[in-house]
Amino acid sequence: LYVAVVVPFRIGFESELMCNPDIVRFDLFLDIFFICDIILQFFTGYRKFEQFEFNRRRVVVHYLKSYFVFDVIISIPVTWMTQPPSMACAGGNSGYAATKLLRLLRLVRVVRVIKLFNLPMFAGARVNHFVLQLVKIALACLFCMHWCACSFWLVKSFEQDDLKLLWEAEQRIDHSPVFDKYVAALYFAGATITTVGYGDIAAENTSERVYALFVMLLGAGIFAGLISNLSSLVSSGSGKEKQYQAKCRDLEEFFEYH
């Protein structure tokens, strides 16, 4: 969650954040955590077809052939190596923001976590399939809005300082904390993705208009996918699928008590 939520926020609002070496030190702690995770992967079983494989040799070979190289690359403490904590100043060094972009590669790890929802352990937890799918859809929409908001402020940060300050003054957020500016960006992202377009916060130059067009297309895709997923959920709640889910619950109860 830190990688998916905080890193995009810090990249987008880098110019609004104060110099804080503690943030870089916390990044180093996360880098150490990822390195420790690599070591643990050599002792963690993996799913093979419908069973779990715990043979040490096969686990090591499987990990070396799958995620090992990628995990090593994204676990390199780039920011610590290129920028010591005493010099880490938000907005004061473009290289610092560039190294943060490399951390977005860690978002791929979120996919590995999402795969856990499909494992049998969640079926044993009696998680309602309909509710679980609704939660997934809601989280996907929230993450898209969050990333679009951070990206919008990143595009806005490339403007000249006087124009950006003038825009912030017009929106009455020039002396506001970072959270208020994030809410304004999130408001723009939500209005653009949903194609509501109130107009009080709008694109003001070519780069922002191009970005707004991209977000509109993304919103259209999200809307289409949302309708499709909701239709599938509604249809899966009846007929043979409903009977199948009932039989699965019966089997779970049987194995639980026997």
Please describe what this structure looks like.
By secondary structure, this protein is mostly helical. It is built from 13 helices and two strands. Strands 1-2 form a two-stranded antiparallel ribbon. The longest helix has 31 residues, at 206-236. It starts with a helix and ends with a helix. Residues 90-94 have low confidence and may be disordered.
The total count of strands amounts to 2
Strand percent estimate: under 5%
**Number of DSSP helical runs:** 13
What's the order of the H and E elements?
Answer: HHEEHHHHHHHHHHH
Largest sheet: 2 strands, antiparallel
Mean pLDDT: 75
Percent in helix:
55-70%
**CA gyration radius, whole angstroms:** 23 Å
Strand order of the largest sheet: 1-2
Structural class category: mainly alpha
Cα distance spanning the termini: 38 Å
Secondary-structure map:
Layout: H1 2-12, H2 21-41, E1 46-48, E2 51-53, H3 56-65, H4 68-74, H5 78-82, H6 94-102, H7 108-114, H8 120-124, H9 129-156, H10 161-170, H11 178-193, H12 206-236, H13 239-257
Keywords:
single chain, 258 residues, mainly alpha, two-stranded antiparallel ribbon, 2 strands
Task: Give a quick summary of the entry.
69% of the residues lie in helices and 2% in strands. The protein has 258 residues and is an all-alpha fold.
